[in-house]
Amino acid sequence: MDVVRESAGAGRVVLFEESARDGAQAKTLMSAGFRVRLAREQGAVFGADGPRHVVFAAGFPSVCGQEFEATRQVALEAQGSVSPSAICRGTVADVRLALSAVRGAVHARVMVIVAASEATARALVHSGAREALRQGLDVVKEAVGLADGVAVDVCLVDVPRADRALVAEYAGAMTAQGAGTIVLADTVGDLLPGRTRTLFQRVAAGAGPEAVLVSHLHNDLGLGLANTLAALESGVRVAACSWLGMAERSGMTATEQLLFLLAHDRAKAEQVLGAGCEPWWTQPDLTRLPTIARMVSAETGVPLAVTTPVVGTGVATISTGTPFTHPQTFQPYDPQQHLGLPPTVVLTHLASRRVLNAVAERLGHRLSAAQTSTALAWTTPALRDGHLLLFGARWQPLAQLLDRFPRLYVSSANRTGHPPAATAPQTAAMFGPDTPSPTPAPCATPTPPTPPPPCCASPPTETWPTSAPEPRTRPTAVTRTAIWNVSARRQTAERGRVLTAVRAR
């Protein structure tokens, strides 16, 4: 049974995951082992129904031997978690290779790429569009005959610039020959939502009720997600997407954004899919999304920015007064409820007295009204300039966070159990003559400002395991400082600023 056709026919949403295939054209590359891991993790979002909700494009076997082996490994090791797919060009030789890469895997698929517009037909097969589609139909017939249980999908390239009536004609003909789904690709990513909706409606009407259409929409104009929603509104139930939006050029619809939008709020899902919709066999576990996104970012080097929706570093963070006191009023959803992300207060130069006190209390300090006023007077310029002080940096679990910073600047330093040294000479005296003389960095304030109140000046006393040698602090330079929490460290590091912290060795 073709579980993708079954799901689409029942009104369920299926994700055609392109991270490992189209994502590779975003100048990233996933190892075979990581592709297996990603496929398993994504399938686990839907529990036992992973194969009915996720087609995983494992690779393009004809590219090289390693790509064939990677595709084969995903098919064999991730079967049962997703429906694995191999992508191929519209030639019988490519089809045979793709089939051999996935044959034997449960719910395996191949996708045949066929040019649909005059421009792409000339570029890919050196013929007109009608001839390219006719040749593609012949290849689909051959592929279905060779498939032996493997589902055969077809990707029609550059459909927005193609003759819609011609596309509809061949989409229907290919379906009649046994194609599982027909992918309509906005290859250059220049559709608008209104045109997208019309395109899918007209092709669906011309192709007939048996055709299962798939959207594959790029993000060159920043409209990948909006266009995908328009396709879903027109009746499409299988949508191509990619983690973090990775794909050729400016990418495509981001998996985490599309899935979250359709799954976290039934009212929003009904606006897109229609009243009474039942898009899932198993309700997706959205708390897995941040972890998977971080995993993909670490593997590919694609960063999670503070502005990245759903999985970025700004999600669940609060930094100003009114959102701090009324968080539900100033966010569209509860990150802790839906994503498992607890709220985090980040101290910035816009922080109010209430926010400053909350951060101080979390760090073990209770400030009086006067101390709060004093602290605000120096935290605001310090945070604006990017100079930060990490309280408790001598705590051993935090040591690894600081290892990549060769030089750190602090307003005070001390050995465990000793009062802080507020100047460079006092620091040198405390740590002995072998401590190199500190050299102020260009960003350091030449004249130290008024030091913070006593309750904020010294980090809480931390102890190292008894087996560890006595810790040493690196040379210090006096500069402006501020209270800082661990979650803010990453954001500051991403901006490339110098962290101001106490580092213990």
Describe the structure.
It is a single chain. The chain is an alpha/beta fold and 505 residues long. Helix content is 40%, strand content 10%. It has helices at 3-9, 32-44, 50-53, 65-77, 92-102, 118-125, 129-147, 164-176, 193-207, 224-233, 255-263, 266-273, 289-300, 321-325, 335-339, 353-362, 369-385, 399-402, 424-431, 454-457, 486-494; strands spanning 14-17, 54-59, 83-89, 109-115, 151-157, 182-186, 213-217, 238-241, 317-318, 344-345, 389-390, 483-484. Strand 3 (83-89), helix 5 and strand 4 (109-115) form a beta-alpha-beta unit. Helix 2 runs parallel beside helix 4. 46% of the residues are buried. The model is unreliable at 388-398, 405-411 and 435-505 (pLDDT under 50).
List descriptors.
single chain, 10% strand, eight-stranded parallel β-barrel, alpha/beta, disordered C terminus, elongated, two-stranded parallel sheet, 505 residues
